Structure formats: structure tokens, C-alpha cells
Amino acid sequence: MTDRPDARLTHIFDDMVASLRQFIRERRVTHEEYRRAVGFMCEVAERGEVPLLMDVFLEATVVDNADKAGTEMSVEGPYYLGAAPVLAAPYVLPQRSDEPGEILMLSGTVRSTDGVALGGAGVDVWQSDARGAYSHFNYPEPRYNLRGRLSTDDKGRFEVRTVIPSPYEIPKQGPTGALLNKMGRHAFRPAHIHTRLTAPGFETLTTQLYFAGDPWLDSDVVGAVKHSLVIAPVRHDDPADLRDRGFAQPYYSATYDFALRPMLR
Ligand code: BEZ
Ligand code: FE
Questions:
Q1: How high is the pLDDT of residue 147?
Q2: What is the whole-number distance in angstroms between the Cα of residue 57 and the centre of ligand 2?
Q3: Which ligand ends up closest to the CA of 223?
Q4: N or C: which end of the chain has fewer CB within 10 A?
């Protein structure tokens, strides 16, 4: 006795296999190439690169299937850790005592697509550091460095202090990087800050903010950049302002207003 078939799963898998069989016929894929593909998939799994491979080549296309109302989505990528610390206002993303990089004050609002401010919305933020490294994945401690969860105030506003991340290359030592190299492709992603926004009754929005002028905006290895998600931080160096804020160096500020889609009942 089998379980009742899952109709959506059956449909998707049947169609996917049919598309792959058609591709094998059209490209006249040889048995040797087929065996190499199987070996490649085994190596991807052994090296723990299944999320990386999938997210590099396919996640942006899945994201583009989403409804277009509200702020555009972007990829989550393989470097999200749930359960980052819940921060208390005034928000500062956890940082090492010698955290490199320029200070960024990132502020904005979270609203519904019809403009109503969403107080108490969850804003989960994670990013690479100013050298392109993610805590936990590229350096072990502190596990939640540059990761944290904050909430909007009663007017739907938030502000968080962080550092400007840098562009980075996805890992090149493993099979995903080797594949890109054989295809003659670079492995860079433009600098970005990940956000995951939640509010009861609204679709969760996972997206990324990019930086104007980044050299990789138009050739992101993952193909995830959307121009509506590009911010242009402004530099501040007025000594009185720096003194008021307690900053020993100039800082940048940027604002982004997010719009969440109401959940369909
Ligand atoms: C990222 O956003 O960090 C990412 C996304 C897809 C693949 C690799 C990294
Ligand atoms: Fe990322």
C-alpha cells in the first residue's frame, strides 16, 4: 500500500524528468558525461555544497516567480542562520571589538503595500563583513557576528547601526567554484545586506539591499540584483554630528522603505 500521491510533487517531478530527458536527447549527452554529472553531484553533497550550488544557479529564478506587488524579493542564499540574537533598541548589529569597515546607519520603514505603517514588524538582518566573510560559515566566532533581529517602532520605523559589507567571491575551492571556473565565469557577488521581514497577516519578505556603484551589480554570479533594491549611502563627516553620535570616524547613512504584501486568505 502506498501513501496517497502528492499531486503537486508528482506533477513537478514528472515535468522536470521529462524536461531533462528532452535536454539529454537534444544535447546528445554521452554516457561518460552522464557518469561525470553523477560524480559531480556526489562531490557537491560530500562537500556540503548542495545549498550553494542550488542558490547560485537556480534560486534567483524561483524568486522571480513570486508576485511582484510590494518590495521585490531577492535570494536568501546559503548563509542565513535562523535564531540570530533578538536585539534591543538602539539597534547595533553584533560586531567584534576590531570590526573592520565603515559605519553604516541603515534606517527605513516597513509598510503594507497600501501604505499603512507596520509597527512591531520583525526585521532579521544578516550580512558579510567588510572583507566579504560571513560569521559561522567563513569564521567560527562570534557565531552571530553581523546578524540580528530587530523590530519596527509603532510608526513602522527602524534604524540599525552596522558596517558596509564588501563584494565577495563565493567559495572557489569546492565543486561549485570549479564548475564556474570551467565555464569561464567569475564568482563575485556585489556587496549586499540581507533582510527577512515578517508581520502577522503579511507575506514574509526575504530580500537584499545592494550598493550604488558596486562593480558587480550587473554581473552578479547569482543573477539576483534588482535595481529597485540598490541604496546609495551618504557620507557624514561633520565633527559636531560625529561627536553627538559618539563616532570616532565618519559614517554613512541610507534609508530603505519596505512594502509587504497582505497574505491572501
Ligand atoms: C548570498 O546572498 O550570500 C548568496 C546567494 C546565493 C549563492 C551564494 C551566496
Ligand atoms: Fe549574501
A1: 98
A2: 14
A3: 1
A4: N
